[in-house]
């Protein structure tokens, strides 16, 4: 009997078109030039191997940016979720710290993946961060009122999971949540402009739900 795969929250098969693009890029980039048979160069190098790899990367960056309507320069490729969470969360907290917020405040939920929980622990140790953990209801949703009450003038980051990796909850309030957080933080910055607060909003596994 064939096993049935039910872990699409964890990972999904690669789309056939993506698989084909990757294979073409790795195996037969420049057929007319036997010398360069695959795309393995360091894209930061100026030799022909590097230039070829950089061109492939730039194309992928442009295509990815057009999918989510942002600038290609805003796309950073990482190895996966853990690295992305580290980069995004520490990036915001370091910026807040360097800008004079010496006890950066972060709001998160009790529902987060260890890849988020662990980096928040590091932020407490390294950057003196204070972390507020919001409880979720039986379905895994945070309460917007709790979120509102948790924000302070030192809040530099709200990091709430969009799609839960264990029970599959997809937070339908993501759009509202993002707008709400941005307004709240901007409002507080206007009202209490003691620090130049870096602010950011990380919604893990962000996807645009506006057309659904
Ligand atoms: C919600 C969530 N965040 C982070 C991770 C970690 O991702 P990675 O294994 O790519 O580092 C996972 C992995 O399952 C996840 O489900």
TrEMBL record:
Domain Aminotransferase class V: 4-175
Cofactor(s) needed by this chain: pyridoxal 5'-phosphate
Pfam families: Aminotran_5 (PF00266)
Coiled-coil positions: none
Family in the record: Belongs to the class-V pyridoxal-phosphate-dependent aminotransferase family. NifS/IscS subfamily.
Annotated protein name in UniProt: Water dikinase
Protein source organism: Hexamita inflata
